[in-house]
Amino acid sequence: MTAEEASPEDQWPPARSEDEWLLFYLHGLSGARIARLCRVHPETVRYSLRHRETLDPSIFGRRLFLHDHPRYRPLTRGRETAWDRRYTAVFRFVADQGRLPKQLGGSIERGLQRWLYTQRLKLEAGKLDPRQVELLDVLGEWRS
């Protein structure tokens, strides 16, 4: 077998550095994941990590866990998406009915009317951004 035909696992020997395993462990990887990455037996990694913890009990306290690595979420994405969805529902209602939603309509129409009322209050308080005001102005006389 030539070097081109060999898989990456065959080209590199297993990573047997216990210091490297400890570093992975401290950064939140499980023993099984470390064993897979380093191409060694999981029991070998587990034994090494437990031995290290016996020698230095502070290791477990210094370890990062999944909750120490929260997923990245943009701060305004959820609100903008919810606002955009609600605006789209109002826009479709106006396009279909030819009028703004009324308080005396069905439950969906009342919900859309309440949302528009809330947007009026936000406009008076200066809490709507220019993009939102511009989109709402497309609806017609929503401000009154």
Describe the structure.
It contains 8 helices and no strands. The model has no long low-confidence stretch (mean pLDDT 84). Helix content is 61%, strand content 0%. By secondary structure, the protein is mostly helical. The termini are far apart. It folds into 2 domains: 8-68, no CATH class; 79-137, no CATH class.
Q: Helix count, per DSSP?
A: 8
Number of domains: 2
Order of helices and strands: HHHHHHHH
User: What would you call the shape?
Assistant: rod-shaped
Beta-strand fraction estimate: under 5%
Structural classification: mainly alpha
What is the strand and helix layout of this fold?
Elements: H1 8-11, H2 18-26, H3 31-38, H4 42-55, H5 58-62, H6 77-97, H7 107-125, H8 130-137
Helix pairs in contact: 2-4, 3-4, 6-7
Organism: Arthrobacter parietis
Domain Helicase-associated: 80-140
InterPro entries: Helicase_assoc
